[in-house]
Design a protein that fits this description.
Helix content is about 15%, strand content about 25%. The protein is of the alpha+beta class and about 200 residues long. The protein starts with a strand and ends in a 26-residue tail after the last helix. The N terminus is likely disordered.
Length: about 200
């Protein structure tokens, strides 16, 4: 999360005295305390994330739910992972601000690579929906942050594979031009190496 000071976020604020003031900001990483679970499975429990940044396969391996897909024929046993939704969440504190700063400072969440179809919820309010993993996102969350206590950030990732299949089915007359692999990958703005 990035908090930007008045000179970069509020056009009504006084002009900075020097150009170096314009670059001033505070970056607060939100890279600790993440948990995850399968979103569509009622008895699924939140488990700790192995590292950050992460991906679902690393977290499932670390929690001994799957074997390493790069060993032997384990890849065949983990195909289901890309066909179900996953949810990640964490808690973080709001930046400590004076009353004067609170009136002029902007808090921005920066997302640099959400994997394609993601819904981001902050403190129970949807703040972002994505459908392109190549587009970095910035969301002004100033009004969504709690003044005291923990903020809950939750990101649900839908299956890009299933979304791609639905798009291919929706446009049957489109020539997808796929000569190898699954055609659904062409309908989705996602790294192509994620497909078999």
């Amino acid at each position: 999360m990035r908090t930007e000071h008045p000179f970069s976020s509020n056009p009504q604020a006084p002009c900075p005295s020097s150009s170096s003031d314009m670059l001033q900001h505070t970056t607060i990483p939100i890279n600790k305390g993440w948990t995850f679970k399968q979103a569509d499975k009622e008895d699924s429990k939140f488990l700790p994330v192995a590292q950050f940044p992460t991906n679902i396969h690393l977290d499932l391996i670390a929690n001994k739910i799957i074997e390493d897909p790069f060993i032997g024929k384990n890849e065949n046993d983990v195909q289901w992972i890309g066909e179900v939704p996953w949810v990640y969440k964490t808690l973080f504190k709001s930046p400590t601000l004076s009353a004067e700063e609170r009136a002029n400072v902007k808090a921005v969440l920066a997302f640099d690579g959400l994997d394609t179809y993601a819904t981001v919820v902050l403190n129970g309010k949807e703040i972002l929906k994505t459908e392109n993993m190549f587009t970095p996102e910035r969301v002004d969350v100033t009004t969504y942050l709690k003044k005291q206590g923990d903020n809950e950030l939750e990101i649900t990732f839908d299956s890009a594979y299933l979304k791609g299949c639905a798009l291919v089915e929706k446009y049957p007359d489109h020539h997808w031009g796929c000569w190898n692999g699954d055609t659904s990958r062409l309908a989705v703005r996602k790294a192509q190496y994620h497909w078999v």
